[in-house]
Design a protein that fits this description.
By secondary structure, the chain is an alpha+beta fold. The protein folds into 3 domains: about 170 residues, no CATH class; about 400 residues, TolB, C-terminal domain (Neuraminidase, 6 Propeller); about 130 residues, Immunoglobulins (Immunoglobulin-like, Sandwich). It is about 15% helix and about 35% strand. It has 9 helices and 44 strands. A hairpin with a 4-residue loop joins strand 37 and strand 38. Helix 1 crosses helix 7.
Length: about 725
């Protein structure tokens, strides 16, 4: 029994390492009813001490079947709402909603961020502008590289503005975008004598030369009376600032043939347009539908749709986000938002519904929305739906099974919540041109600020006094490849190196990591390291107590060399552990099970849990009460018939480095094992007998054998 308790002691100690150093953001909720009722506001968010200008969402994960999900890592997000202030494009972790990057707000409004590529290079693109001019979205397109440098600013030609609905890059590095222009027009069909038409356009420009390559006008190729949307719906058509938005072009895609696929919201149809002269080749849906619907109308009855895209290179299948509603026109009988894939035979002019994915939570999208067909899922063809005016996105298996459902606010909160034009799953490698950030603060206790609807680190007590700065907080906005952070600390000066000032290895599990420092720590620096153990960047130097930041040169070459040595020594230590575990005959569980069988009253689940809890507390104290910038080797007694296989498993996946201590097992005979103190390079410290040393109680083999013998005798008598 003692050996089992000793094993629990070691396991508890190992867990204490994890909980002492692996700390991150406020965690997402899981199926929280309170969240969906709005108890945390219409758009719950969190603040970060090391990045005060960044404000990230706190998600509620409703469904997650990870094995079948697309492996794409991120989702682009741009929270839009009249109460949310200027819009920043954001890159979020796809499975948690955790912030990875918050981009700049070039203007008040921002929409439609995504990752696109041209000429073999990936970019983040989005639209930003002051809001509405003459009753339609106006602004410019912005294109950023992996270092988050602005590469191109896209402006419309002919005195127009770039509209927010589409900004598409082609492989040849041309940009296609929607735009509008309001001019006097004959609207006598609606009994308007002095009419104004808000006409939809798209333009294609060459990014390198800024040359206009193609422009298409809806009014030149469509009949404005095809509109399902009417001027009186929103009092349109009577003035320059209130032109009749008859078409409302909201997506454009150029295909391999050089033609364009367009989605027209206010005529509820999809157009296929010639890339040579702009004529309409065919129309799907709406009043001038060219196709026979082989699915009893289900392939062509979409309404107020968004985001039409070709699904296949053969140009036979189209995905469409079918809102089915608008805020002003609501179909009471058939209002359930869906994403659909339709299969067309352009020559025969027939269409059938291939697949339909209905929105979770019975969502009725009335604006925005997007659908994405993913080809990288385990079974190709997973689908992402983002619901526009509802802050939810869902990933479906090809057969319609909901694999992942996440909310970034309660459903049905109206304009108080965050709209998101399209939720698109992407991959991205971000290498910021700026350095990581660091800040000090109190222990990481979050509080909810109901007024701001944000979770924040509690910095002040009820009496207004500030809590002391005991913890270092660090982050790197936009860096995607951080595997872990190395924390350096000093009690004396700012000249810190890996070899002399190594404090901890903190795996990156969120946007902002934090680490509680030891008593009397004065200076702290954090180093970002990739999964290949390459140093990516280092923070400035933090004076913990005051929070003062000092910029100081960082010797990357020296740090790389010292980190390599440190990691090599750590791996050797772990290999030593594994070598000494070899040959152990059976596991701790086997031993506990055997004793429990003989004495069922002696061991209970409660007793084992209590042992784990007590050992965890004790070992956390032993681990961290006097640790300085060194790692401790804890020799534990190994018994001939005991196994520490579970402890070995605890080290699997740790990449051989431990955050706080590095244990090694050494066999002892007849004496208590003692603590040895090692410097970071692995050599035994000369002050190994100083006040930091302590001893671990051990089991004596003779005593153990005697106890076991007595137990066996009692068992025979039962």
């Amino acid at each position: 029994m003692f050996r089992s308790l000793l094993s629990f002691l070691f396991l508890g100690w190992s867990l204490s390492l994890f909980f002492n150093s692996v700390q991150a953001d406020y965690a997402p909720f899981y199926n929280s009813e309170q969240y969906m009722k709005g108890d945390y506001g219409a758009y719950p968010r969190q603040r970060y001490l090391s990045a005060p200008k960044v404000i990230g969402p706190v998600a509620n994960i409703l469904t997650s079947i990870e094995a079948d999900l697309s492996p794409s890592k991120y989702v682009m997000w741009a929270p839009v709402g009249p109460k949310l202030g200027a819009v920043h494009p954001m890159l979020l972790e796809a499975q948690t909603g955790t912030t990875v990057w918050q981009g700049p707000a070039h203007d008040f409004q921002g929409l439609n961020p995504t990752v696109q590529s041209c000429n073999g290079t990936e970019y983040i693109t989005w639209h930003s502008g002051p809001g509405q001019i003459e009753n339609h979205s106006a602004g410019k397109g912005y294109i950023y590289d992996k270092n988050y440098n602005l590469v191109w600013t896209v402006a419309a030609k002919g005195g127009k503005w770039v509209d927010c609905h589409e900004l598409l890059l082609t492989p040849q590095c041309t940009a296609i975008f929607t735009t509008y222009d309001t001019t006097p027009h004959d609207l006598s069909h609606w009994n308007i004598t002095e009419g104004y038409l808000m006409n939809s356009y798209f333009q294609e420009i060459d990014l390198a030369t800024d040359e206009l390559l193609f422009e298409w006008s809806a009014a030149d190729h469509m009949d404005i009376t095809d509109a399902i949307w009417q001027p009186e719906t929103k009092h349109q058509g009577t003035g320059q600032a209130r032109g009749f938005d008859f078409a409302h072009l909201n997506s454009v895609e150029k295909d391999r043939l050089g033609n364009y696929l367009l989605s027209m919201r206010h005529t509820s149809n999809v157009l296929y347009v010639s890339g040579s002269d702009g004529h309409v080749i065919w129309t799907l849906g709406g009043k001038r539908n060219d196709f026979t619907d082989l699915s009893q109308g289900d392939a062509t009855n979409f309404a107020f749709q968004h985001h039409a895209r070709w699904v296949d290179t053969e140009l036979t299948k189209i995905s469409i986000f079918d809102d089915r509603n608008s805020a002003e026109i609501f179909d009471q009988a058939n209002n359930h938002t869906r994403g659909i894939i339709v299969e067309i035979d352009a020559a025969a002019r027939t269409v059938r519904l291939d697949k339909a994915y209905y929105a979770t939570h019975s969502i009725h999208s009335v604006r925005m929305g997007g659908m994405q067909v993913l080809q990288d899922s385990p079974q190709p063809g997973n689908v992402i739906l983002g619901y526009g005016n509802e802050p939810v996105w869902t990933e479906y298996a090809p057969d319609g099974t909901v694999l992942f459902d996440i909310a970034l606010g309660p459903v049905g909160a109206g304009r108080d919540s965050a709209d998101n034009y399209r939720a698109l799953k992407v991959n991205w490698t971000g290498e910021p041109s700026w350095s990581p950030s660091i800040s000090s603060g109190p222990n990481a206790h979050y509080t909810f600020n109901a007024t701001k609807q944000t979770f924040e680190i509690l910095r002040q007590a009820e009496d207004g006094s500030f809590f002391p700065n005991t913890t270092a907080y660090f982050s790197w906005n936009g860096a995607t490849d951080i595997s872990y952070w190395v924390v350096l600390s000093s009690n004396t000066d700012t000249n810190m190196t890996v070899s002399s000032n190594f404090e901890a290895r903190v795996p990156k599990t969120g946007f902002e990591m934090h680490y509680k420092m030891l008593y009397k720590t004065k200076f702290v620096r954090a180093i970002a390291v990739s999964d290949k153990d390459v140093i990516m960047g280092a923070t400035a130097i933090l004076e913990l107590a005051s929070g003062t930041i000092t910029e100081d040169a960082f010797d990357y070459e020296l740090a790389e060399a010292e980190l390599s040595t440190h990691l090599s020594n750590s791996k050797k230590l772990i290999n030593t552990i594994k070598d000494q575990l070899t040959g152990v005959k059976y596991t701790v569980q086997d031993h506990v099970s055997q004793i429990a069988t003989q004495y069922p009253a002696a061991i209970s689940a409660v007793g084992i849990l209590a042992a784990v809890a007590v050992s965890g507390l004790v070992t956390m104290y032993l681990c961290c009460r006097s640790r300085r910038s060194r790692s401790y080797q804890i020799p534990l007694m190994t018994f001939e018939r005991s196994s520490y296989r579970d402890v070995e498993n605890a080290f699997e996946g740790s990449d051989s480095e431990l955050d706080c201590l590095s244990p090694s097992f050494v066999k002892k005979s007849g004496q208590a094992p003692t603590i040895k103190v090692f410097d970071v390079d692995g050599s035994e410290s000369s002050d190994g007998e100083d006040e930091d040393d302590f001893k671990v109680a051990r089991g004596d083999r003779d005593t153990y054998d005697a106890q076991r013998s007595r137990a066996e005798d009692r068992a025979k008598q039962m």
